[in-house]
Predict the 3D structure of the following.
Amino acid sequence: MRIEGAIFALGAIFFPLTAGVYWYLSRDPIGTTALALSGALAFLIAFYVLYTSKRVYPRPEDRLDANIDEADPEYGFFSPHSWWPLAVGFATFLVVLGLIFAVWLLVLGVAVLVIALVGWLFEYYRGEFAH
């Protein structure tokens, strides 16, 4: 976890420096605030990860003498054949377009999103891959 903490600590240094340079060159308060808050967020995450890394047992990924079989074998189940994430992404796209342009598009996007989420949730209860 120390590597992850170091990466976020570099972000906590980089973003405020970039915010200062950005403010000096552009005088844009919105972009400067966004960069400064990104640095603050990176600092919070770096502090938490580095603080936690001192109190937990080192993971196999953190040790140089670890074997590959020491890692957690179960990272989760990821469906290799599912098309539902694409449908959820398209429906989310419709919802965002509906927020920008028209209420009817928003309603259509929410309806398609509900159908896509239900389909994704129950894809292993029906059809060829039912358990």
